[in-house]
Known about the structure:
Blueprint: E1 33-36, H1 60-85, H2 92-103, H3 109-130, E2 137-139, E3 150-152, H4 153-165, E4 170-177, E5 181-188, H5 193-211, E6 218-224
Parallel strand pairs: 5-6
Antiparallel strand pairs: 1-6, 2-3, 4-5
Amino acid sequence: MSHPQEGEDGTQRLPVIEQGDGPGHGPGLDQAVSAAGYDAVPVLADGEGGRAGRFWSVRRVPSALLALVILAGAGLLLYDVAAVRAHRSAMSWRVRLADWLATHPVDDVAVLAGAAAVAAIGIWLVVLAVTPGLRSILPMRRPSPAVHAGLDRAAAALVLRDRAMEVSGIQSARVRMGRRRVVVRAHSHFRELDDVRADLDAALGAGIRELGLAGPPGLAVRVNRPVRKG
């Protein structure tokens, strides 16, 4: 990619993207699968930019649900304790629960199932607390510590799909965008499959570089003929 240049009239010319030649392929190849290799984006030196970590989710829904459950349970228990202190009978649910726990040992199947459910909920909440979440947002490179940008995974897949459809011979294409790998499945209705795959490798490799992701994913391309109906 060339750098912007200043014109004679003071206007700034837009940068020109120069696409290199696609990866070559030997004669007589029959496979239609490619694990493409391309040059990764240079990493900034120490002190330049900032570390592009993943975006953390605020976990509003799990936090709100947990808070409502705890609030309802604590309020109900507090009301029942206050009623007993006021010389009123305890709620029937607490009496039945106490009687049930008194007649069921710790190794009872129902007790173990309830304990396992509570433990699973606790583990789930711990995982939510220590993991970033927001897997649908891919972090982008940070040219400055003040900038922390992300790209939606679906939008990135759509951009790469459009790049794939621009390749001559492509009839349809499907792109699955992952955090570490991009899987492309395309159908070609004319041209040699190896030629189409080589052009796809070049076009999609350039497209991934232009996305500006902090950790550019790998690329896997599969090209087949469309299935004929009838």
